[in-house]
Amino acid sequence: MVQMKQDAGRIRIWRNDAVAEVELLRASGTQHRFPKHFHDTYAIHLHERGTMAFQYGQPQVALKPGNINVLAPGVVHMCLPADEQALNYCCLFVSPAFIQYAVLDPGATHLPLFERLLCLGDIKLFQSLGSAHRYLETDDDAFEAETLLTAGLAALAAYSGERHKRIEAGREPRHVTTVREFLDAKYDRRIALADLARLVGLNPIYLVRSFRSFVGLPPHAYQRQLRLSRARQLLRSGTPPAEVAGMVGFADQSHLSRLFKQTTGVTPADYAKGL
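Structure tokens predicted for AraC family transcriptional regulator:
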């Protein structure tokens, strides 16, 4: 388990071997501002103190104590304190594989969709997921924690209203899909905007505007998030932080450390220690 001072508060990220497919975060007394980013997992936020401003492609939402916020993998969002008050909250980052194992019937090929920002005020569900998080934090009862977590995930899947709908690629234009797939495959390479424009035969400015409109980030920022996502995977697999920067395409370790801390709240070294 790891902690890091941040604005006189602290942020911890860790995993519990009892539920290895779930990454946990606890923030206490922090005012960390998270820029636009996305996760390769489902992100479940349980808000405990203060007001957090949360934005995802729509008017800003104010998260209050007792609120649950849920995002599907790949959804671009940003979050920051709404005022000067420090925040307390905890998060569960749940892999799609664990969602399928815990919630769906055997052989199912679809996952819960959260096409819109889901912000709930369900106190019983908040308490259940909060208890699961605390058990996984203290190792008090991993069996009960997994039971509570599984029940909570099933309730969230029902809230999504899309449990039985197959996930689709989306309605983005072909040129956006082409660029996104190119960046997915070559996230660790140096890429010029002119190269992307030539790839799809479009004006660079039009391409950036169109890509941002459908993906939520301009191409360079999308590539950066892919690199950070891959960095987390490498750190989880035991790759030393000093080696990760070059493997994912960052110029040096300090560049990775700065962006990693900005996006997760902890440094790569602290993140690795908590796993």
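The chain has a mean pLDDT of 85.
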